[in-house]
Amino acid sequence: MLKVLILLIMFVEAIVVMVRQANHFRVTRAVRPIFIMDSHYCRGVRRFVRQILQSMPPILDMLVLLLFIMLIFSILGFYLFSQNADSRYFKTVQDSFINLFVLLTTANYPDVMMPAYNESRWSVLFFIAYLAIELYFLMNLLLAVVYDTFNGIEKAKLQKLFLYKRTACQHAFKLLVSRKNPNRIALRHFVGLMKYYAPSKSTRDIYLIFKHLNTTKTGSLSGDEFYEVYNATDLTWKRSDRNLIWSASFHFPFNKIFKGFHWLVTWKWFEYIIYVIIFANFVWIMVEAIQVSVDPKTNAKDYQTTWNSIMFVCIYSVEAALKIMGLGPKKYFTSGWNIFDFLVTIASVVGVFGELFEDSFYYIVVLRPFRLLRVLKLKRRYRDVFGTVVILINRMSSLAVGMLLLYYFFGIIGMEVFSGYSMKNCCKNTSVEDFYKYDNTSIIQGYYYLNNFENILISGVTLFELTVVNNWFIIMEGYAAVATEWSRIYFMSFYIVTMVVMTVVVAFILEAFLFRIQYRKQQDSDMDDHAIAKVTVNLLPEELHMCLNKPAQLTSYFLKVENEPQGDTYGTTYIGERIRSKEDFSLKMYSDEAKEWIAAEEAKRQQVIEQMIDMRRRNSRPRLSENLDDSDIEISQHSRPNTI
């Protein structure tokens, strides 16, 4: 509906432009990102915007409180300091409110205080009280409220998804059971489900999934076992070669050489030796940088490569090569830390080669300090930070796109309103006149005339400067002087919107980091140790032949415990792997609450059943009330167990 309304307004605007033969302010140009957000590729951005909108009620409450207290202090400041002839900040209530709004960002502090402080030293109490209440209390309280709301939204979303999957499993379970066995799913019916739900799965994979789910070894799935079908379907199966490394099939002597590499890189002291080398490299780079910086005769661009730079990079390169040959390329590049080490090593190699060439490669030389990023592996707290960054990569990309769309929205409005104003030598007889001077007579030379809205790219730069908030009020006051005082609404609105967005960003960064810390404390292990879920399933030769022979009919004969041979080494072992998601870790961490969710859902379902029975008993057709007997309720309860 919203898109239809926008398209209609755009059509009307186009007709008006053609009739008038002149351009005018077009509001729909700023809302074009809505069509981008509605695309398949921006689904992450939609989720990010949805989270912001869901967090808006408590944010709006806090903003109203923030602005209300700001208004009270504005009136108080007007009565206290408007009589000061040296102060221009509190001449009117409007000036008082605007300057206190800027003071909330600390961009004009202590300038806004000094005239009053010169008049009376006691005036500092006003500003201390204002900053203590508004900046240090309410702003942090806003973050706490947003974090609590965001955390509640995440848990509610987890609960909804968890119960939705259970409900879907219950419906599927009732459709797959037979009248002969209404409490269990046969292998034949499960295969039929997989042909539709996961058509890319092979017959062997389907049989492995079924055997993995059938923990009771009865040859059929109960309701409790069927609840794990979502996780089991995500497993990727491969044959297990026990006690074999990736190079075991190499010819002699390469198999022996690569086996030695494997032993070396898995040796517990190998990593400690690399850590010592990283720390030595850190000290050496710091000493070299300090020597270059304190020597007036040496320019940073004149720095020449030294033997130690080549030595450390060679050590890192050899380490990466040994790990790739010892662990195998597949295992090496499936580890996040190994990928991180590899990228840092590549950057170091490029930096060293840049040092060997002329000044034109100077900007490649700056890659040398990236070698120090490997220090992040030395301490668990650093690994937590890096792990949080990895978890938030998808959200950060959605945040980046969302911020670009926000900048586009405000940038288009800024171009429509302010693009016709020249900021060079503007703002005569104002407090910001020197910042916009285009000649050499000013002692400030702020170059603020470059902050304009000529095109969308320059508008983006101007908005980024407003986001940083350092001296952002100078830009606002400049356009208030050349355009209208009402233009302050644009800049103040942009600050409020970006403050809300960044508060939500900080909230979900806190949520991800604290969740990682709480998970380690509760589970006594790190999330990285459980990043990949692994299960093993053993297939008998007869089972493997049955799965690989297409004309053969799958049977559950071998799944029953009484038909299973003794011993673990008989048959072929397959390993199923899948990457654990945030949902998996959350359910593991909130397992007790998940049981409460199930109990509440089952109680609600039982209440609905009782209401239906009562309604049918009151019906004028008694036969219908007798259809739902105790056996039907018992079957329904058996198909929806209360355990996870």
Mean pLDDT: 81
Unreliable stretches: 628-644
Shape by Cα distribution: globular
* Number of E-type strands: 5
Quaternary structure: single chain
SS strand fraction? under 5%
Our count of helices gives: 27
Largest sheet: 3 strands, antiparallel
Structure classification: mainly alpha
Query: What fraction, in percent, of the residue positions are helical?
Result: 55-70%
Provide the gyration radius in Å: 34 Å
Distance between the termini: 41 Å
Strand order of the biggest β-sheet: 3-5-4
What report would you give on this structure?
The longest helix is centred in the N-terminal third of the chain and has 53 residues, at 124-176. It is globular, with a radius of gyration of 34 Å. Helix content is 64%, strand content 4%. It is built from 27 helices and five strands. By secondary structure, the protein is mainly alpha-helical. It has helices spanning 2-20, 33-37, 43-54, 56-81, 93-104, 114-119, 124-176, 187-197, 203-213, 223-226, 229-233, 254-266, 268-294, 307-327, 329-333, 336-355, 362-365, 380-391, 393-418, 456-468, 472-482, 488-523, 541-548, 582-589, 591-618, 622-627, 630-638, and strands spanning 185-186, 220-221, 236-239, 532-539, 572-579. Mean pLDDT is 81; it is low at 628-644. A three-stranded antiparallel β-sheet has the order 3-5-4. A two-stranded antiparallel sheet has the order 1-2.
